[in-house]
Automatic annotation (TrEMBL):
Gene: ycgT
Protein name (Swiss-Prot/TrEMBL): Ferredoxin--NADP reductase
Lineage, uppermost ranks: Bacteria, Bacillati, Mycoplasmatota, Mollicutes, Entomoplasmatales
Cofactor binding, per record: Binds 1 FAD per subunit.
Subunit and partners: Homodimer.
GO molecular function: ferredoxin-NADP+ reductase activity; flavin adenine dinucleotide binding; NADP binding
Cofactor: FAD
Length: 328
């Protein structure tokens, strides 16, 4: 029986993988997608991240690559399984028998869930024909240089929408960026809000889409309407980027005997432990009162959970040592 199963190989899972290896734990880390990295690799590989300790800025993919480089050095006896999900969970003596989607069964003493926000699909515009693929509409940026010197309209008011608006201008991809938000106040970092004005991004706040005009597979115009005075604005752009967030598909974990919030996040104690003594959680899937959700928070939660997992494996008096020493 192995020590640990980590479920999810996004940033928090990758960090936990390295730390578990350094702590001498054996086991597996599984990822449902064909490549590790989670949201930074899938949704914003070329967008800069600014809120990581000791790093001025780094793209999502470069940060994932750095995490993967660490796992190659420190993974120890932890094995990565891609395109693999949990199908069934059965309690056995001192642990679990876990049936995977490839029909193999592994036995582990503990589980650390780092699935982030789970399997997500972008929230799409309801006004458009769902059977048509519009050539100038996107929900995800894969190649920012494609938009060089183009007129960009971004719809959304969260961190991702504002980050892209500022990124396009600061990286000199284009100087013509408009952002549309249905509320008066953004749901984003104040520093990002201030940058919109510094970067001279055109802002339409408290507006929503009234109509969309199309010509075949192209959007030619969006008509915006103000929520209070019903004034109309014509919005024309070369490309429209929709950043309304994502719908989260429930996973088999939601059926496990754990305590969940209304938002389907797992409630954890200060040790990272869930309502089951051998199951822990860290990152965006984990919840407790007063939590601020970002990657740095998840990294702290994962190392804390692993510390307490070692006590289950080796006994309450065990201490794994400090991971910053003698790594060469």
């Amino acid at each position: 029986m192995k020590d640990l199963l980590i479920i999810g190989a996004g940033p928090v899972g990758l960090y936990a993988w390295s730390c578990a290896g350094l702590m001498g734990l054996s086991g597996y880390i599984i990822e449902g997608n064909s490549a590790p990295g989670g949201q930074p690799a899938e949704l914003f590989p070329d967008k800069a991240i600014y809120d990581l300790p000791g790093i001025d800025k780094i793209t999502g993919q470069d940060f994932v690559n750095n995490l993967l480089a660490n796992t190659k050095k420190y993974c120890g006896n932890m094995t990565l399984l891609l395109e693999t999900k949990v199908s069934e969970l059965t309690e056995i003596n001192d642990g679990f028998a876990v049936k995977l989607s490839n029909n193999t069964v592994i036995e582990v003493k503990t589980i650390l869930i780092t699935t982030g926000n789970g399997v997500f699909t972008p929230i799409k515009l309801e006004q458009l024909d769902s059977n048509v693929t519009y050539q100038n509409l996107t929900y995800q940026i894969n190649n920012p240089q494609q938009y060089h010197n183009k007129k960009i309209a971004i719809l959304g008011g969260g961190d991702s929408a504002l980050d892209w608006a500022n990124h396009f201008i600061e990286e000199k991809i284009t100087s013509n960026v408009t952002i549309v938000h249905r509320r008066e106040h953004y749901r984003a970092k104040e520093s990002s809000v201030a940058k919109l004005q510094q970067n001279q991004v055109t802002e339409y706040k408290n507006y929503h889409i009234e109509t969309i005009t199309t010509n075949g597979e192209l959007i030619t115009e969006m008509t915006l309407i103000h929520n209070d005075d019903n004034s109309l604005v014509s919005l024309q752009a070369d490309y429209y980027l929709i950043q309304y967030g994502a719908k989260i598909a429930p996973s088999v974990i939601s059926q496990w005997p754990l305590t969940f919030t209304r938002a389907n996040k797992i409630i954890i104690s200060p040790s990272g432990q869930t309502s089951h003594p051998r199951i822990f959680a860290a990152g965006n899937i984990a919840a407790y009162e007063g939590k601020y959700y970002n990657m740095a928070t998840g990294f702290g939660e994962s190392i804390n959970a692993l510390y307490n997992i070692t006590k289950i494996i080796h006994g309450e008096k065990y201490h794994p040592g400090y991971l910053g020493a003698d790594l060469q």
